[in-house]
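User: For documentation purposes, I need each entry recorded in a consistent format: the amino acid sequence on its own, followed directly by the corresponding structure tokens. There are two entries in this batch. Please keep commentary to a minimum and don't merge the entries.

Assistant: Recorded as requested. Entry 1:
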Amino acid sequence: MARPAESPAPESTSHRRAPDFFIVGHTKSGTTALWNMVRRHPRVHMPRKEPWFFAQEVHPPAAPRPEGTGRTPKNLDEYLSLFEGATPEQRIGEASCLYLWSHTAAQGIADVQPDARIIAVLREPASFLRSLHLQFVQVYIEPETNLRKAIELEPERRQGRHLPSNPYWPGATLYSEHVHYVEQLRRYHSLFGEEQVLVLAYEDFRRDNEATVRKVWRFLDLDDSPRVVVRDANPTVRVRSRRLYALMHTLAAGEGAVPRAVQAAARTIAPRRLTRESAMAIRDRVFYGSPPPPDEELTLELRHRFKGEVVALSEYLGRDFVTLWGYDRID
């Protein structure tokens, strides 16, 4: 995989402040829920999630992005303008779950804010990839609905074949590239030092949301006594029908005369008091279902494949992820 272009150089930004901390990922590892809870501290200011500015692999800003994620800022000044609502006493934070996967984000963050605190969330690899694949199918990145087949496509995708048509995140469906935990963490440790990087386990967060959020607040030198508002977010789901979902995706994009006509008709017949949240809840009931049970045979294969990475991670961080994730029971 070719190395991406260099991160954007700092520009003149007048009096604008850069973020003090970053939640860098991984995707489908509780980052949305963590962002939702951490930002409710009165001394924290975090705007919309996923600016993606420092992940140069997902540029240009004009590339299509999933619903609700906005667009990538065009330059540093535009990026810093996202945080203008912060008061002087607040910590500014940013959350983009691609930053841990990205080869450019760590250096880009260090260039703009060398004193930044970094928060990474890691998840057991087999569970992570299953959830990631379901998410990619849901947001129209991955056309192959079978995880085993999607993983088997990796060699051809590295050669530029069978790539998804959506251009905003090239390389996303090379699933094994997401499970380079030690390499990913080293990029941040080499630039920020161990005291500036907090590594969390997704399983700890799921087990005790409140304790994890308070740990993050303490890491940011904040009072950890405010009430923690527990919020679930971005659950793993299954798309009920690829064909129906594709039609919905086309209509939502509003491309062409027919989608625009359908959108106009929908606005005419929809109840006046139907909120965006209500509309999305209806959509979710129609298009999404509970995820299928894991393929146990594939799960075991993936756990064998990634056991070396889990052992290396345990040695690197000095924490027993082998036992935490059940890899001690794998021969």
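Entry 2:
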Amino acid sequence: MPRSSKSANRRILIVPIFLPQRGCPHQCIFCNQITITGVYPKLPLREELRSQAEQFLTYQKCRPNRIQIAIFGGNFLGLPHDDILTLLTEATHLLKAWPDSGIRFSTRPDTITTEQLEFIREFPVQTVEIGAQSMNDFVLARSKRGHTAKDTARAVALLKQHSYEVGIQMMTGLPADTPAGALETGRRIVALAPAFVRIYPVLVLKNSPLAKQFQNGQYTPPSLEESVTLVKQLWQLFNQNKITVIRMGLQVSATLIRKGEILAGPFHPAFGHLVYEAFFFDKAATVIKAAFPDLQSMGDTIALSVHPRDVSKLRGLNNRNIRRFKKRFKVTHVKVLPDSGLSQNSVVLGSIKS
């Protein structure tokens, strides 16, 4: 009983349920879901599932129009059928008080089959996220994913045939991958036309197989700056093709940021904000240089206008972009002006009132 969740997406609340590495046929080279989520791999009892969802909802200041109970962290369709049935039945029961609400889950592309979709057909599943990670078969093999790019393409087509909203998760910095390779993965994902994507730069997590390669000198992760630049390019690619990027960088958890859990890699608690910061700096710099080619007639003040939701992105973390503008363009003052008449992700020169 799939129902599209594309309408009213802005008012939806995601209620996460984590099942770290449950249903996974093996451990991928980069994975340690216990570190990422802080949850140990056991199937929650019905009472625990209900308590977790209700507790999450009590934290919300405003009652949302609808919710999605989201089952993340493992390979949902790789679970035994009894476990799938238990989780979907309980989630459906919890949704009775929420009209037009539903369920979403993440799963591997090779577990998406006609038989599995028929098994879940009677439940209000709306959204399926595919852990594709790459569209390069050599990179997938090096990461011990156990599936191919063709599996991802087939899974997307099958889900769309059954009217599910489809999301795709990809990673950057995988062993044997390159920035050019990641951008090619991005282009191949665009060709599949998912509703949304997540972009996760690889981190070297304690007790993951990749940790051994890092410690043996067989793997060197890209720097934070390199990763921000690459993910910015991917974000622009998806944005230009009207595919929403709903996350860039891992969600921070208390376990993830505990000392010693991340051995290396481009981790930042506000990674997505760094990407927006870099994009808006480039965008604004282009606008400024176009208006003042010789930079001699600028004066000592720059005024830039953006949509109100983009003000913090243009200013950067701790006003870092403001300092960069001053240094790059040799000005004393930089004013950021909110203008609700502008579209998001656009920058124009603002007027300087005397």
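Summary note for entry 2:
The mean pLDDT is 88.
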